[in-house]
Amino acid sequence: MADEAPQTHSGFDRTLLQRMIGQSGDRETLETKCETLAEVAAMSLSLQAAETIGVPIEVEFDAFEIGSKSELTGSFPDHVTVCAAQIGGWTSDITLCGSNIFVIAVMECMLGGSLPDDAKIEPRELSAIELDVATVIFRQLADSVRMGIASPPTDDVVTDGALAELPEPLEDEADPPSIMLRFELTVGPIKAPFCAVIAQRPILKATIVEHKEEKPPMRERPEWATKLTTQVSRSHILLDARIALSEITLGDVARLQIGDVLPFADEGAVRALLSAGDKQLFWCEFGKAGDRYTVRVQEPHKHDQELMRELAAG
């Protein structure tokens, strides 16, 4: 029993010392400041992410938690990607995490595909370009937190590349008292969690922007976002050209035999409908060049110019 008393006393002294030197604060003060910060960040993120990525995203503040950094990062849900971030002039200790399923869904949208149902997306590790998309979202999340800090003055956000898992902490690495802001991000039918773990000290020292209903000003599209859009636009995507055949009855289909010939529906020049995913893009003329069959683009499908602008935007 004599050996246990110093440990308890030491634990009490450490907690008290953290409070005295401003490393930690009481839950009520932290929660009040963090809820205001999270509301501002959520509104900003929904606007900034949609502007940068080109996909409508809804963001809601979900929960606030308190604990040590290791406890909070250890509570991250399964199938997430993580990212370290810092906000110049304020804190260099931010850890972010986000759902892989959400990133996969956003990637589908950026490539011009449709939004799949949640049940159709199997959680998996992200590809290299999907990790780039995750890094974009993380940077937007960190920048949205930055916009909620009224003082001290803050500088640009810096983020590391997104990773499949947290790196092992160094032996002498600090484990400061921290808070976690949990957000729910929605894109189409997909809802998924994103979290931000921040040390308590900068939160306690900061003055938080008063939450207002009006939208924060949009920022200029940054260079890294343009580069990512270019990278996505260079990604390979399967094109599908379909040619309509003449109509026959279901009975005729049941009697089809090997060697039967079915005519195209078009008489004269044959047209094919060019698609990417479920997006119908162009009417094309069917033909042949050398030993290969080809299609020649003629006109947009139903002259859907808005669709083409969407695809070009990435």
TrEMBL record:
Cell membrane found in the keyword field: yes
Keyword Cell wall biogenesis/degradation: no
The organism's place on the tree of life at top rank: Bacteria
SUPFAM superfamilies: Surface presentation of antigens (SPOA)
Compartment(s) of residence: Bacterial flagellum basal body; Cell membrane
Database matches in Pfam families: FliMN_C
GO CC annotations, alphabetized: bacterial-type flagellum basal body; plasma membrane
Assigned keywords, A-Z: Bacterial flagellum, Cell membrane, Cell projection, Chemotaxis, Cilium, Flagellar rotation, Flagellum, Membrane
Its membrane topology: Peripheral membrane protein
Segments forming domain Flagellar motor switch protein FliN-like C-terminal: 231-300
GO BP annotations listed: bacterial-type flagellum-dependent swarming motility; positive chemotaxis
Similarity field: Belongs to the FliM family.
Function statement: FliM is one of three proteins (FliG, FliN, FliM) that forms the rotor-mounted switch complex (C ring), located at the base of the basal body. This complex interacts with the CheY and CheZ chemotaxis proteins, in addition to contacting components of the motor that determine the direction of flagellar rotation.
Protein name from the UniProt record: Flagellar motor switch protein FliM
Naturally occurring in which organism (per UniProt): Hoeflea prorocentri
